[in-house]
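User: Can you predict the 3D structure of histidine kinase? Sequence below.
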Amino acid sequence: MAGLKKRITNSVQLRLSAVLCIAIFATALVSGGFAFYFALDEAHELQDNTLDQVAWVIKYTPGTDAERNKMGQRLEGDNDAQIFVEYITADGKHTGDSNIAFHLRPPLREGFQDIVTPGGAYRVLVHPLTPQMWVAIGQPTDVRNEIAFDSAVRTLIPFALLLPILLLVTTDLIKKAFRPVIRLADDVHRRDEQDLTPLAEHTVPDEIRPFVNGINKLLRKVDGAMQTQQRFIADAAHELRTPLTALSLQAERLAGSEMSPEAQSRLDALRQGLKRAHHLLEQLLALAREQQTPSGQVRETVAVDAVFRQVIETLLPLAMDKNIDIGVAEPLPANAQIVTDKNTLYTALKNLVENAIRYVPENGQVDLRLTLNGRCAVIEIEDNGPGIDASKRERVFDAFYRLEGTAQPGSGLGLSIVKTCVQRLGGTITLHQAAHFATGLQARITLPVAPG
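Assistant: Sure. Here are the predicted C-alpha cells for histidine kinase:
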C-alpha cells in the first residue's frame, strides 16, 4: 500500500487519473442521488394522479350505486396496483362489498390522506360523489413505496453502466495523452553516451516543449564541450607525433655511433621510452578518431574470418617474441559474415588480442572464437594469463586505468578504445573468467548480425 501511494504521488499520470476518477465518481454519486430522489418523488406523484383519475372515472360513470359498487370491485381485482375502493355515506357508514374498511370518521375531508388501519398503512383519496355519498380510493403504502422504489432504481441503471465506462475512457485518454512523453523517455533511454543529437520537439505537448528545449540546449553544450576535448586530444597527439618521430630517428642514428656501455644502456632506455610514447600517441589518436565518428556510419558485409586473419598477421611478430600460440580455436560457422564497420571491428579485435598477448606469460595461448546465435554474433578472445579480478572488470574499461602491480608497460587506453569501438558497432563487451583454461580472461563481444 505504501509503495502504491508513493507511486501515485510521484506519477503525474497516475495522480491525474486518480483525481479525475474520484471527481467523476463523486459527481456520479451526487447526480445519482438527486436523480433517485426526484424519480421517487415523481413516482409517488404519478401514483396520486392514478388514484385521482380512478375517482373521477367512478364519479362520472353513469349508472346506479350498485353499478358503481361493481366497478369498485373490478378495480380491487387489480392485484398489481392493489387499489381498493370504499363507498361512505355522509354520516360515515360503509356501503358496498369492499374488502377493506378505511375507518374514516365524519366529518369527511376531501383530498389525500395517510391513514393507518389494523390491516396496514394506506394512501387514501377521499372524493365526494354526491352530497350524501363519498368514495375512498386507497392503496397500501408499502406497495406504493415498492413500485416507486423500483421505478427510481431503474433511473440509476444508466449511471451504473456509464460510470465504469467513463472511468475506463478517462484513464485511457490520459494514458494516450502521456504517450509522447513515454516515447521521448524511451528515445533518451535507448541512446548511448555518444548520441547527442537534439530530441524531437514537434511530437511532444506544448506543456513539455520548454523542458525538451532545455534538454536540447544542454545536449548542444555537452556536444560542444566533448568536441572541444576530442579536438584537443587529436591536435595534441598530432603536434607531439612529429617531434617524437624526429627524436626516434635521432636515437636510431645515435645507436650506430660508438659509445660506452653506460651510454648505450641509457640510449636503449631512451629508445624504449620513445617507443612507449609513440604507442600512447597512436592510441590517443585511435580513441579520438573512434569517439568523433558517429555510430553506424560505414556498414558493409564483413567476413569475420578475414578480420581474424588480418589481426593475427598483424600481431604474430609480437606473439612469436613470447612464443605464444595464437589462432582460431574452433572452425568458424559457414557464411560467417556480419554487416558492420570493418575498420572499427578490426581496431577492437586488434586491441583485445594485443592486450592478451602483452599480459599472457611466455609459452601462453590466445584463442579466438565466433558463434552465430540467431541475430547476434558472439566473438570471444580467451587467454590463459593471470586474468582480472571480478570486482575490477568494469573499471578496466576506463581511460588510463591500469591494474595495480602491473609490470607490463602501457597507457591504460587499450580496453577503453575497445569499448568505444564496440559501442559504435551497436554491441556490448563483457569480461569473464576463462572457460577453457584453468586461469585467464575471456573477453566476449556481442554484435548484431545486421544493423537494427
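DSSP finds ten helices and twelve strands in the chain. The longest strand covers residues 120-130.
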